[in-house]
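Researcher: Last one for today. Full complex below.
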Amino acid sequence: MAGNSYGTIFKITTFGESHGEALGGIIDGCPPGIILDFDTIKLDMQRRKPGQSNIVTQRHEEDEVQFLSGIFEGKTTGTPIGFIIPNTNQKSDDYSHIKDAYRPSHADYVYEKKYGIRDYRGGGRSSARETASRVVAGAVAKQVIADIKINAFVSSVGDIFIDKPYQVLDFSKTESNPVRCPDGATAAKMEEYIRQIRKEGNTVGGTITCVLQNVPVGLGEPVFDKLHAELGKAMLSINAVHGFEYGSGFCGARMKGSDHNDLFNADGTTKSNLSGGIQGGISNGMDIYFRVAFKPVATIMQTQQTIDKDGNIIEMQGKGRHDPCVVPRAVPIVEAMAAIVLADFYLMNKMY
Amino acid sequence: MAGNSYGTIFKITTFGESHGEALGGIIDGCPPGIILDFDTIKLDMQRRKPGQSNIVTQRHEEDEVQFLSGIFEGKTTGTPIGFIIPNTNQKSDDYSHIKDAYRPSHADYVYEKKYGIRDYRGGGRSSARETASRVVAGAVAKQVIADIKINAFVSSVGDIFIDKPYQVLDFSKTESNPVRCPDGATAAKMEEYIRQIRKEGNTVGGTITCVLQNVPVGLGEPVFDKLHAELGKAMLSINAVHGFEYGSGFCGARMKGSDHNDLFNADGTTKSNLSGGIQGGISNGMDIYFRVAFKPVATIMQTQQTIDKDGNIIEMQGKGRHDPCVVPRAVPIVEAMAAIVLADFYLMNKMY
Amino acid sequence: MAGNSYGTIFKITTFGESHGEALGGIIDGCPPGIILDFDTIKLDMQRRKPGQSNIVTQRHEEDEVQFLSGIFEGKTTGTPIGFIIPNTNQKSDDYSHIKDAYRPSHADYVYEKKYGIRDYRGGGRSSARETASRVVAGAVAKQVIADIKINAFVSSVGDIFIDKPYQVLDFSKTESNPVRCPDGATAAKMEEYIRQIRKEGNTVGGTITCVLQNVPVGLGEPVFDKLHAELGKAMLSINAVHGFEYGSGFCGARMKGSDHNDLFNADGTTKSNLSGGIQGGISNGMDIYFRVAFKPVATIMQTQQTIDKDGNIIEMQGKGRHDPCVVPRAVPIVEAMAAIVLADFYLMNKMY
Amino acid sequence: MAGNSYGTIFKITTFGESHGEALGGIIDGCPPGIILDFDTIKLDMQRRKPGQSNIVTQRHEEDEVQFLSGIFEGKTTGTPIGFIIPNTNQKSDDYSHIKDAYRPSHADYVYEKKYGIRDYRGGGRSSARETASRVVAGAVAKQVIADIKINAFVSSVGDIFIDKPYQVLDFSKTESNPVRCPDGATAAKMEEYIRQIRKEGNTVGGTITCVLQNVPVGLGEPVFDKLHAELGKAMLSINAVHGFEYGSGFCGARMKGSDHNDLFNADGTTKSNLSGGIQGGISNGMDIYFRVAFKPVATIMQTQQTIDKDGNIIEMQGKGRHDPCVVPRAVPIVEAMAAIVLADFYLMNKMY
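Model: Here's the assembly. Have a good evening.
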């Protein structure tokens, strides 16, 4: 209940602090009999892990997942899948300077106020390192909904946007550059910009677009648990996310009904898709697409004023190895959360 | 589980179709001993109900709530508050034309596919009429968190935006015009525009901004149930919503960390508030503000092509009395859902 | 969360005090397309209602259920089924004597301490009148699991027990006498005994046995949500219940393994059935049977000493029309809760 | 949702098969700032572990728990407590004989039917080894409700019962004998009987009584989540449990109201306590006591007939090192589940 679980039928619960013994989680409700492909799980972990390119953090974390239960002779058994990801490369001494101080735009202050205690090492539970567990669960979820194609990619970094509709992009190119932007020319500009930002000791925000294809009609529950409401919550639960829109999104709020309505073809598909594949909270079989806004990483390599526990104004210099821009590494996290939401609704829909 | 409940401690479950006997709901987990102010509940219902001005639908629905339990001698007792809102003015014959046809960008098609049956009268369960129950629950929730100020208002209609920060607006003016825009000059333009849209038989989208003030530090649970993630889900669960952003939102994705970070004052408040009052998913005591995008209403008074159950292409003309723009009436719904989310976290936080 | 909901997929939430406007509830998660048989719902309501014979309370309550949603043209639509049962015959003046006093072995004292307020009229929320809503939900649940046969009956009143195994009883006789005991000779003794108890102004306890037949293999979730654990919780949640046992029950605790083990036939059925149709928390296709113990009703027509709010010792005389023995009227409640549990697991099992 | 979680506020989720890599779990909702006493956790683990005396199984399992998160400098932080218990001494070859056969009165058959796959080694997920995780969580829960005294003990083995009320027992004696029966003379008889049963290659059932003292008034939620209903579910979820009764229990079903009612003293305590410390589902401050029935262990060291996967009748001989009587080792498990239920309601009650 304290917010560490997600899902109803396909349910994940995670634990772990960035500098504790290990992260991990439990996937409950995974159907039995799935032959798990461990290579794709490993691949998703590698896409998220630090140190994979020179535009992301240079921390080295192995992020190797160990499955402890729920799998027998390579197949899921229907029992809970417990897993851990040992923290092997955490340097606690990096964080002594924040033991008694609150970093601006981090969760240090609110954790202290809410709990009266905090594991200050590397952000503790509020660290984005927690998302490693989500990627594991998402990689399993993808195998539950194997027919659904999930493709996320970086659609903007700062003011550099892909200026094309997703339909003309070749998703197989997403992994061909360190930014994870499937449009080569834009990717190059983004990469260049992120390098420059890093040199400044600064950080920059960005957006990720995610496209879900081949989703069966009928996923999502009306009223409160609409498919896009759950997708929205799932995305907003990712560290640094400040916005979510699907289909026409915020642009739709400027349109007229006559332009916005998606007219039907005889087979139930629609001529346009401003609805983003969801009507009344339920998938209609068209592509689902949504966009997620990430704020710039709060830890910058510049001197900032802040306060300590006693309310003294102090100066703080960012230390450690941090991402100048979080979106390249967040692509597999967005996919993972989308997969978890879809797997949950997919199983729920078997009732009907 | 089928999506008709919201909340964990302060929990609402709703029922009802637009043309059934009654709508209603159950509020479970409302603390005992609250002297309910029924006038403010009635007021919120009136703000949502149709027919209140000439820029909204001219349907006449009384929307009178009857409380059936959980209240004794004017006070809540801690037991579930059951309530109903009878449907007194629903004309079923209005809807015969859609019995066997699917309206574009409505939920008709997906309901039919998911359930194999649908109450076609007025959209049935997918009708925004369901939100009347949310407004009742929200009005009760507001009294649970009486110290928190919740102010929503229309911030854009089509391309007409308020071009001022919320801090300079006078929220007491929101109810002074039928658009529910606290900036008089902008309100006048919006009103004029909506009238024109209505004459065209068309509809238009818009946005609502909501500001939560005097929120105690510590609301929200880290990781999955972040305060803004729940606010996002709650808003996205409202009919016609296509986007949600809080704090710096999508603009934040274009910024640098050095510009985005909110530096602390000695007392723990922050000099800027691009975090939108939430850090790491937990309220930090600063104003929480967010913006919600509503697509244009799908029912237009123009002829559109669509399909019937058998896949025949047919022509359909919108009938009935519908809103040319939904945002004025959605303001109390946004407030209601915000109140429900806050009440839930407020009670949850008593554990700490 | 405050304890007024039951179930995960097939989920019921109830509201209502014994002397409020109405009782009622919401059934969420009922599958679509079920042609509801309203006569059987009415029948179950009549089996529970007061005044049906001269060995139960002589209160007259109509207990007429009004369905408000979720049903269209006689069929369930998959949307929540809201219903109310108006309180038409409640005499509030009967209860002035307990306004400031706590009845022994009732919930008056604990409600006052927990909530600081209580609706003292007729026990308020703690009244067994709440079970009327459960019977409605149970009657719907029975139609979700139409192939499963549910038969509960009174197996003991005071020291009068049926001394036969359930296999030799003719369940079609259960409704042939006011006690709801399918064994005629025993029923006659029980009836005579209850009459005598009533003359004494006293009450007596009893047990109900319930047999579930034709249950498919596989219902129940291992570990915490075992089928018998949920059945146990469901039964223990009924007013006045003090015990639950299934299969060999408390007798099994005296047995040896060599006598207790159920050996398999070649087809997977078992030669004996001390397991009570459940192994490892999962149904094995054999009959499920369990027994529920009800304490004697606390309200007796005799003078008892008790205390008032200020801790003064006072004398209290039971008033009103109460049941001398609750088990005859509790038979449909036991069946209803069993049906709700089974429907929930039945739908959940569709995942596999 | 697949049944591997318990609790709402204080919530435990477990994972692990008897012969997998490790068991473990996540405790979510543990309040921050508790200085954990690891010695008492270890002690409870030792009370449950195999091989502790010569009347329990002679398997040697270290059952050492490793905490991975949620604890910082010896204190709970309010974040989820992840833990694992490595399986260090599991001999997989012991179980080849049951790979294709179903043991009588075990869960082999139903797992195979439900999931289509099972980890046959040692019962897999259905093994009572899972309860090791519960004991860890329970030991933490005990520290959340440090003022409440929880004492379980063996009250019967086969036909040997303690013939005294719990009030005259000295709970400090429970651990003084391997049976965990606080009455020395009875304990000696039980021990002797269990030795004899073991020699016969047989097993025997028993009961455990549990007493909860110093429980504050007000724990439990009315209607479905009554305190005793949750205690009942928690106990029935323990392997081999076939019955639960609290207060007067099944005996209460034979009594008259005039004998059963608990009259009040001026201070709100009661002269008798047949209610078992709970009225209307809510604790009244008196001792809570309940009794749990365990069937005899299904694995016996005798030859039994059973079937294999193909429905062939085969002979099977129990192998391995199993408990002749499960109740001595189940005492800490009963206490653990009671502590988990109490901690959950205790935290929930802070809302009021």
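Chain C has one domain: 5-351. The two ends of chain C are 28 Å apart (CA to CA).
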